[in-house]
Amino acid sequence: MGLIVQDVVNPFYPEVMAGVIEAAENRGWQVVVGSTQNNRDGELALVRSLGRQVDALIGFFDHTDAELAPYVEGVPLVVMDRHQKTSHGVVDIDIETGVRQGIQHLVDRGHQRIGMIDCPNEEGLVEDELNRRDCFLAVVEELELPVDQTWIVTGAESVAGGEAGFAELRSKQPDLSAVFAYNDVVAIGAHRAARRLGLDVPKDCAVLGFDGLSIGELLDPPLTTVHIDKRRMGELAIDQVNGLLQGAAVERALLPTELVIRGTT
């Protein structure tokens, strides 16, 4: 099996890799891993190169089905975390439920002025039909919170991006009482920025992450997050591959999310 990830430094991907490798080994399969290192320009060349060495490919891709097609060359393909229709196998994440659980939890804790630090979709990348920003806006509208697009800032998908995003959000919305971060890495940056500004987390400002990285448990206080079972995500990808190799019609696999309440909310 070939597995393509976008960033081996981001703790999200090694956990998915571990799930893929374990599930593959249980079937007597080997896994070859490649990383684009968030370089979209090199993605298609990696797809073509790795696709020539394996029986099937699993990957997190920035390109559309049409763009990938000439490079896959008939190799069975499973796309990960893709929230649009696709002709390939797919393992998706139930983002909508996760965001809803997280925001409802903040509201239950008394928060009304909730901001979001989003990570922008770069020009040319696949635009998801369902993303965390849209889910956030839909939920705050349903709950009739005094929150709109002006309560969202964008930043790099990194700790530094989370720090900068929190500082910007706080300056624009001084009454901010809680922050929903695009993922846990960004949430860790927001947490650091809040502490640097002398704020008590969660008394002065709550912080909610998304992804459920184990590193979030090391924060003081530990990070509340919407947890994704990343190893299970890898296992589901191997199940999809098995069906494709047998010539079966595979349905989209949807990975559930679970709110894990810790000390930052």
Name some characteristics of this structure.
265 residues; alpha/beta; Rossmann fold; 6-stranded parallel sheet; 38% helix
Radius of gyration: 19 Å
In which range does the helix fraction lie?
25-40%
Strand content: 15-25%
Instruction: Name the shape in a single word.
Output: elongated
Outline the fold blueprint.
Blueprint: E1 2-5, H1 12-26, E2 32-35, H2 43-51, E3 57-59, H3 65-72, E4 77-80, E5 89-93, H4 95-108, E6 114-118, H5 132-142, E7 152-154, H6 159-172, E8 178-181, H7 184-196, E9 206-211, E10 224-228, H8 230-245, E11 253-255, E12 257-260
Helix pairs in contact: 1-8, 2-3, 4-5, 6-7
Quick take:
This protein is α/β, with parallel strands linked by helices and 265 residues long. The protein is built from 8 helices and 12 strands.
Question: Would you kindly provide a written description of the structure presented here, covering whatever features stand out?
Answer:
- This protein is of the alpha/beta class and 265 residues long.
- It folds into 2 domains: 2-93 and 228-256, Rossmann fold (3-Layer(aba) Sandwich), CATH 3.40.50.2300; 95-227, Rossmann fold (3-Layer(aba) Sandwich).
- It has 8 helices and 12 strands.
- Strand 1, helix 1 and strand 2 form a beta-alpha-beta unit.
- Helix 2 (43-51) packs parallel to helix 3 (65-72) and helix 4 packs across helix 5.
- The longest helix is centred in the C-terminal third of the chain and has 16 residues, at 230-245.
- The termini are far apart.
- The model is unreliable at 123-127 (pLDDT under 50).
